[in-house]
UniProtKB/TrEMBL annotation:
Keywords: FAD, Flavoprotein. Residues 59-82, 235-249 form the Glucose-methanol-choline oxidoreductase N-terminal domain. This is Glucose-methanol-choline oxidoreductase N-terminal domain-containing protein. It comes from Ranatra chinensis. Its cofactor is FAD. It comes from the Eukaryota.
Length: 518
């Protein structure tokens, strides 16, 4: 296998010290490490943003979005993957995917050391932040007071309440580049080209076989050819864009843009994301330490530099999470709501606020992506269709009420926890606290977990081995291949898919290892 050569083309560059600081995520997102995508204006969401366009950050760096994400590590629930298998995606059930999660993990959490569902020794470090605010402790105590399990549990992800796990190493971001690429950079059969932007996949129009890619580096167009396969890992926005630019996509759309159609395929459809609303802010009677000034606090900076401690090591400011199932509001075996606790708020409050993000984990709304033109340097058009399905809004409103209920339990009363009741300007025509008001806030302050997926899904665009149907020598290995979003942050899920894809690729090509076709 050492004779198999690999060329990695990356549109961005390397990480910098700022990208390593977990609490600095909001600042990193404002840099060139983010592609800077925004959604197209729609009537039912993002109404409080400029032009009714929601920002959709996507990483532009060696390591992709793992360089700018919030680093929260979850893997979903067994039912997520069993549903994939039941839908016809052979080999993607829980029992099949669990070994691939464990293959790459290096989980350094004492309470999980003996768990059969986690492992140590893999490439990716997973740990728990050392610093903890008293309000995070109250969050888990509130869960227990309401009868939910709290703490680490068995399975892929613990239902109920738990402190966050993060893809960090000694408190610093541990990206895909650090975990998987750096250990193998000295291999002679691996080449990495940075700031090399792929503009097209080269596909023979007669044989429908991918044989290379076109890319731009130093303002010059270049072509590289592949003897075996082209593997597209550009994410849920760029992967469908590149396929459509290359002639694989909805026939009518490509013909409208004058792109020769090589394969009529539902590329760009089935766009999914975990919808959220991060506007729940609560006042308390003591400082919780994390404000906009925390990054500049010398004491916290020393804590972080010495041993990876202090609030700077919080992944995007998140301390704890809760996974619940709506309807009965129990922990359930297949949660569809996530609550994220963070010791800070929309207001600075001198450190006397905390925030709670509410997320819809198994959305029914579906969006789509289209090309703006056949110019590869024009951003694609992103139609999120957030809250297009009424169940998504209904469940979000119920989750908001659950979050408010949690903040009113005895563990929070000792801090005189009180909800910020200043209404959002665009929702003042509704009575504060009603279902109509909270539904309005979801449509106005629409956020998401940036877990976009599904635009080159298995079962429609791809087969179960992630090969583009109807085109030989071409696979897609990223979140766009996910058929239905699991109840999970997607980073760990994509790593699992990549490990499984690597085995698929090796299994296919090993019989040819000693042949002339090498």
């Amino acid at each position: 296998m050492g004779r198999w050569s690999v060329l990695l083309l990356e549109a961005g560059g390397d990480e910098i010290p700022l990208t390593d600081v977990p609490l600095a995520v909001p600042y990193v997102i404002g840099t060139d490490y983010n592609w800077g995508y925004t959604t197209e204006p729609q009537d039912g969401s993002c109404l409080g943003f400029e032009g009714a366009r929601c920002p959709w950050p996507k990483g532009k760096a060696v390591g992709g979005t793992s360089v700018i994400n919030f680093m929260v590590y979850t893997r979903g629930f067994p039912r997520d993957y069993d549903l994939w298998e039941e839908a016809g995606h052979h080999g993607w059930g829980f029992e099949s995917v669990l070994p691939y999660f464990k293959k790459y993990e290096d989980v350094r959490v004492p309470s999980l050391r003996e768990s059969p569902f986690y492992s140590r020794g893999g490439y990716l470090r997973v740990e728990r932040p050392k610093w903890r605010s008293p309000l995070a402790v109250a969050f888990l105590e509130a869960g227990r007071a309401l009868g939910y399990p709290a703490g680490d549990g068995e399975g892929l992800t613990a239902p109920g309440f738990s402190y966050v796990l993060a893809t960090t190493k000694r408190g610093a971001r541990y990206s895909a580049a650090k975990a998987f690429l750096r250990p193998v950079t000295r291999r002679k059969n691996l080449s990495v080209a940075k700031r090399a932007r792929v503009t097209k996949i080269l596909i023979d129009p007669e044989t429908l076989r991918a044989y290379g890619v076109e890319f731009v580096k130093h303002r010059r167009y270049r072509v590289v050819k592949a003897l075996k396969e082209v593997i597209l890992s550009a994410g849920a926005i760029n992967s469908p864009q590149l396929l459509m630019l290359s002639g694989v996509g909805p026939r009518r759309h490509l013909e409208e843009l004058g792109i020769p159609v090589l394969r009529d395929s539902p590329v760009g459809e089935n766009l999914q994301d975990h919808l959220s609303m991060a506007g729940l802010v609560f006042f308390v009677n003591e400082s919780v330490a994390v404000t906009g000034r925390t990054l500049l606090n010398p004491r916290y900076l020393v804590d972080y530099l010495v041993d990876g401690g202090g609030p700077l090591a919080l992944p995007g400011g998140a301390e704890a999470v809760a996974f619940l199932e709506s309807g009965t509001w129990d922990a359930g075996r297949h949660p569809d709501v996530e609550l994220v606790f963070g010791p800070g708020g929309l207001t600075s409050g001198g450190g006397t606020t905390f925030r709670r993000a509410v997320s819809r984990l198994r959305p029914k709304s579906r969006g789509f992506i289209r090309l703006k033109s056949k110019n590869p340097f024009r951003w694609p058009l992103i139609y999120s269709n957030s809250f297009d399905h009424p169940d998504d809004l209904r469940i979000m409103v119920g989750a908001i009420r659950m979050a408010i209920r949690i903040a009113s339990t005895d563990p929070y009363r000792r801090y005189n926890s009180s909800l910020l009741t200043t209404p959002f300007p665009m929702c003042r025509h509704h009575e504060f606290g009603t279902d109509e008001y909270w539904g309005c806030t979801c449509r106005v302050l629409t956020t998401n977990l940036n877990h976009q997926a599904g635009t080159c899904a298995m079962g429609s665009v791809l087969d179960s081995e992630l090969r583009v149907q109807g085109v030989a020598g071409l696979r897609v290995v990223d979140a766009s291949a996910i058929p239905v979003l699991p109840a999970s942050h997607t980073n760990a899920v994509v790593y699992m898919m990549a490990e499984k894809a690597a085995d698929m690729i090796k299994s296919y090509w090993l019989p040819y290892a000693n042949s002339s076709f090498n």
